[in-house]
């Protein structure tokens, strides 16, 4: 089923090259082999046995799976799905890679176990609406207003680390479990753009999946009197996996907060460059993308950077450190929790 979907998608590409425009990797390498068009041509050549899988590996691995090409594609080719699945199919994760992924997720799992035994305050969750708390947020043991207001869906992970790491077996396991849990909910709130876009790929009742700010947009928030960000300038980094509609809703929300000055970052579709563990395998490209982002943020003269994806927040923190911005970066959820009041 997935194979047919992938092949149909590959056939849809008209080679128009419109996807080159927003590709963060092409922006650095200027190599058409690294674009969606180039990758699709190579996959077609592989299908026709003109190229072997070794010859397309480098280009398929260099992709950030950011999906920017998809947003610009007039033929609606689902490029991210093609590249993640083809990567997992052609180069399934080896034992060493699975161990690496397990080691990467281990601190999250340990923290999750420690936190499991901690005493939590008693909440009065609204069972109609559930909160999709991703693995990183869980491991951080942050009890925010979202935990206090909504029942936790109790997922282990959205599945993205497995899919991006080429571990389709574990991805399918997580996906199946999540679908069963999602079926029991009426409305699911996300605070991470990457979790939401991953779940949207496999869960068909998309109208049930909303970004949490959508739920709070009518509330009249203001900055706390004692907040250090009172009357300060704040910008927001749009994660690559965030839809335009979610981003515009967040912008509206930020503009409505009394006591802060929201300034958009130019080129809102620019990537943070971090891409999960991308920076470990492609440090030069990753660093160059991050530097461009840091320069754009500098132009805003902001005092605080907000985002809505733990990977982006970490990436922005590194880039602020390396490129001298030194601006604090926070999750939107934590900013609302700590700095705002009704
Ligand atoms: S924009 Fe879409 S149709 Fe055009 S080359 Fe890129 S992937 Fe193919
Ligand atoms: S997913 Fe991102 S990095 Fe990969 S080809 Fe598309 S725009 Fe470029």
Structural summary, described in words:
This protein has 18 helices and 10 strands. With 342 residues, it is an alpha/beta fold. The protein folds into 3 domains: 2-90, no CATH class; 95-215, no CATH class; 217-341, Rossmann fold, CATH 3.40.50.1860. The strands form 3 sheets. It has a 4-stranded parallel sheet. A 4-stranded parallel sheet has the order 7-6-8-9, with helices on both faces. Strands 5-10 form a two-stranded antiparallel sheet. Strand 3, helix 12 (193-202) and strand 4 (209-211) form a beta-alpha-beta unit. Helix 1 (2-12) packs across helix 6, helix 3 (36-47) packs antiparallel against helix 4 (53-61) and helix 16 (283-300) packs across helix 17 (310-322). The longest helix is centred in the first third of the chain and has 22 residues, at 95-116. It is globular and about 65 Å long. The chain starts with a helix and ends with a strand. The model is unreliable at 120-124 (pLDDT under 50). One iron/sulfur cluster binds at residues 13-19, 36-37, 40, 69, 72-73, 75, 77, 79.
Could you give the topology of this structure?
Blueprint: H1 2-12, H2 24-29, H3 36-47, H4 53-61, H5 68-71, H6 79-90, H7 95-116, E1 126-132, H8 135-139, H9 145-149, E2 150-152, H10 160-164, H11 168-183, E3 187-190, H12 193-202, E4 209-211, H13 212-216, E5 222-223, E6 232-236, H14 244-256, E7 260-262, H15 278-281, H16 283-300, E8 304-307, H17 310-322, E9 328-331, H18 332-339, E10 340-341
Parallel strand pairs: 1-2, 1-3, 3-4, 6-7, 6-8, 8-9
Antiparallel strand pairs: 5-10
Helix pairs in contact: 1-6, 3-4, 4-6, 16-17
The structure holds iron/sulfur cluster (2 copies).
The site of one iron/sulfur cluster has 16 residues, from helix 3.
